[in-house]
Amino acid sequence: MNALLLLACTGMIAGAFLLLGITPLEFTDGLFGLLTRPNKSIKAEIKEAAHRKKAGFLRREITEVQEILKLTGRASRFSMICAASLLLFAVGVSLAVLMGNLFLIPVLAAGLMFLPFWAIRLTATHYQKSVAAELETALSIITTSYLRNEDILTAVEESVQYLNPPVRNVFAGFLTQVRLIDPDLETALQALKPKIQNEVFQEWLDAICDCQHDRSLKTTLTPIVAKLSDMRIVNADLEYLVSEPRKEFIIMALLVVGNVPIMYFLNKGWYHTLMYTPVGQAILAVCAAAIFVSAAFVIRLTKPIEYRR
Predict the structure, then answer these.
(1) Do the Cβ atoms of 203 and 224 come closer than 8 Å?
(2) To the nearest whole percent, how much of the chain has pLDDT over 90?
(3) Do residues 191 and 206 make contact, with C-beta atoms less than 8 angstroms apart?
(4) Are 85 and 113 a contacting pair, CB within 8 Å?
(5) CA distance 63 to 68
(6) Burial group, residue 6, by CB count within 10 angstroms (0-12, 13-18, 19+)
(7) Given this model, what pLDDT does residue 90 score?
(8) Domain locations along the chain
(9) pLDDT score of 88
(10) Which long-range contacts link 30-35 to residues 24+ away (Cβ below 8 Å)?
């Protein structure tokens, strides 16, 4: 019966989309745009300016994912991420309804809805590590060349052919701007800052700008570049430390989920109590909520450490 009702509900939703003449992507863009729209009241603006009001959890997640997609050059995929999130929300509700567990409806709906956002966070972690590694190589090569000839433009020209994307694209754009648009080196160097969100890179650019006025300050460049090596070592140690707890979490989550079908073969009475009584259904909902909340904390706490000035 529940399956027929879900099928009828799916048909009604599809018919509504056809009658209104809107696509699922347009609907998700409008819905998530409404959720992330800031409160324009004067009281809310005062609290935000005084840092006394934090944005909601959903709004923070959506905003952070938008920033990650912009940094990684995938801003156009935000609509697809929102559509996948809304689809998983519906899948979570449908699974809970088919199981006949009302307690699981909000848990599965919210938990599955955040899966695409968590996936983007994981890809951003790998992207940051790869950019930091390439940035370490690039700054080392350019700094060595600059210490020899004391001309940043020549140093970048000599080194850019040995660099890899996306760092190579950034410095190639720097050369294009200086040669063809504006020969002001300091302006071009300052324009590089927002292109790579890395504190060490921005500190290195500030030091290069200072060297344009005082060449004796070039000795500060090598210690700055060395910070990237230190952060790589620290992150490698951190990855080693958190790999075991993360593995244990995955194993425990699989054991909790796998115990439900195993219980069907071991003791059908216990299985019936767990699946069809209010107390058992509430226990399942609590366990599912614990898994999703723990997964969110694991993803947030295992991101790489970044240098802060």
Answers:
(1) yes
(2) 0
(3) no
(4) yes
(5) 9
(6) middle
(7) 82
(8) 127-226
(9) 85
(10) 31/82, 31/86, 32/62, 32/82, 35/59, 35/62
**pLDDT at 197 exceeding the cut of 80:** no
119-141: per-residue pLDDT in tens? Answer: 888 777 777 777 788 888 888 88
For residues 181-205, average pLDDT: 81
Q: Which residues contact 53 (CB under 8 A, 6 or more apart)?
A: 44, 47
Q: Is 78 helix (H, G, I), strand (E, B) or coil?
A: helix
Q: What is the pLDDT at residue 37?
A: 60
**Confidence (pLDDT) at 33:** 60
Residue 161 in 3-state DSSP?
Answer: helix
Sign, Cα dihedral of 257, 262, 264, 268: negative
Q: Give the pLDDT score at 249.
A: 84
Q: How far apart are CA 76 and CA 123, in angstroms?
A: 16
Number of H helices, E strands in the chain: 14, 0
pLDDT at 20: 62
For residues 200 and 307, is the Cβ–Cβ distance under 8 A? yes
Residue with tokens 């790589």: 232
Length of the chain: 309
Looking at residue 29, its pLDDT comes to 60
Question: Two tokens at 87?
Answer: 């689809």
Q: Token pair for residue 196? A: 């790579």
Return all residues near 51 (Cβ < 8 A) that are at least 6 apart. none
- SS3 assignment, position 246: helix
The distance from CA 169 to its chain's CA centroid, rounded to whole angstroms, is 22
Rounded (10°) angle between helices 221-266 and 278-301: 160
Measured from the Cβ of residue 5, the count of other Cβ atoms closer than 10 Å reads 11
With beta carbons less than 8 A apart as the criterion, state whether 293 and 115 touch. Answer: no
Dist. CA 292–CA 299, nearest whole Å:
11
